[in-house]
Amino acid sequence: MQLKEALAQGTQILEQALIPSPRLTAEVLLLHATHSDRAHLFGHPERELTDCERVHFGRYLNERLQGKPTQYITGHQEFWGMDFLVNPDVLIPRPETEFVVETALEIARHSFGEAPLNIADVGTGSGCIAVAIARELPACTVYALDISSKALETARLNASRSGVENRIRFLRSDLLHLSAPDENSALHSNNSRAPCKGTTLVVPNQKRQAGASAPEVSAWSSAAKADLNAASVGMAEAMPLQQFTDSSLLLPPLHMVVSNPPYVSERDRAGLQREVREFEPATAVFAGESGEEVYSKLIPQAAQSLRRGGYLVLELGYDSQGSVRQLLAGQEWSEIRWRPDLAGITRVVSARRTGEQLHELP
Ligand SMILES: C[S@@+](CC[C@H](N)C(=O)[O-])C[C@H]1O[C@@H](n2cnc3c(N)ncnc32)[C@H](O)[C@@H]1O
Question: What is the rounded CA–CA span in Å between residue 227 and residue 195?
């Protein structure tokens, strides 16, 4: 079978099964099966497929017919002009999430200039937001947080491929609360050290509220930083992990918290595309019964973790605006801005952490 015949047949099969964009999908799967690019496909349409290529192409078509997203078959998705590795442990980065990055960059450049910033990406998944921000803001340190150790592994790989792994800390967390690595996690090491309770890493919440600022960050001893780094994915071999006895370890005071959190409600589950419902990780997609559960925890946590004058940037679900508006009401937040995506749906909100010491930053 020639390349052009394979492409035509693949397109027809996908079309008959009502798979969206059948021609493009067949082309992507054929390129993946033949390890070639479009120039080769269109420059040599009469090249015969090898047996191995035919088998692979057939398998990929079959997987797509079963509902598996094309990106999980090829293992790649473009985001912010970069190639990201994806797998069923991570959400496939969406184009609309680029608005989160765009908003965060605008705020960072406008409000903080070239200052070295501490930015947390909560629910980093593939690491797409964290990596894009780290690439664009060379002076910043990004804390890439996720409840899933497997997602963190993928994020770390993506950071490494983009050359920014040295400026991103990958940490397992429950939103903004850092947590101990779980028993089965790839982070786990046999060489456990003494608990880190009592190091300067454990900053009491009250102290934060009372006005922690830059000196508190610099007060981090290198030992405390090492403790935090030890909880980073990918460092388990270089630096043994301690067993944290205190599950409320804190990050340094943050200039910005960005997040594309899970926001789909259980009641919307049945109406979701099969590709999302059956193949993307449920922890990445579903927030709970109402869909606002994660926002309702994350927004107060962000108020605690941000420096006064710092910013929160959140991606919104199509119907999240009302509940997020309520959660941002009150004196802790100001400069609340809603941004629509290209379809006119309010997609991103940004808000500034207010407080008695306004204009504290940078
Ligand atoms: C919608 S996905 C976003 C992934 C990526 N940031 C993106 O935009 O493509 C949400 C991510 O949040 C993570 N997550 C869910 N609940 C969490 C929690 N309680 N704490 C930390 N991360 C959580 C999921 O594992 C998932 O990676």
Answer: 10
Tell me, using a 6 A CB cutoff, whether residue 348 lines ligand 1.
no
Query: Is the CB–ligand 1 distance for residue 253 below 6 Å?
Result: no
207 shares its domain with 98: yes
Containing domain of residue 267, as a range? 75-362
Task: Count how many domains the chain has.
Answer: 2
Pick the last residue of a domain from 13, 42, 66. 66
Read off the pLDDT of residues 220-266 as tens digits, 9 standing for 90 and up. Answer: 233 333 334 434 444 332 222 333 334 446 789 999 999 999 999 99
Ligand 1 atom 11: residue of nearest CA: 123
This prediction has a pTM of 0.83
Q: Is the CB of 151 under 6 A from ligand 1?
A: yes
Question: End of a domain among 14, 43, 66?
Answer: 66
258 touches 120 (CB < 8 A): yes
Residue located nearest, by CA, to atom 12 of ligand 1: 123
Q: Which atom of ligand 1 is nearest to the CA of 315?
A: 8
Tell me how far apart the alpha carbons of residues 303 and 320 are, in angstroms, rounded to a whole number.
19
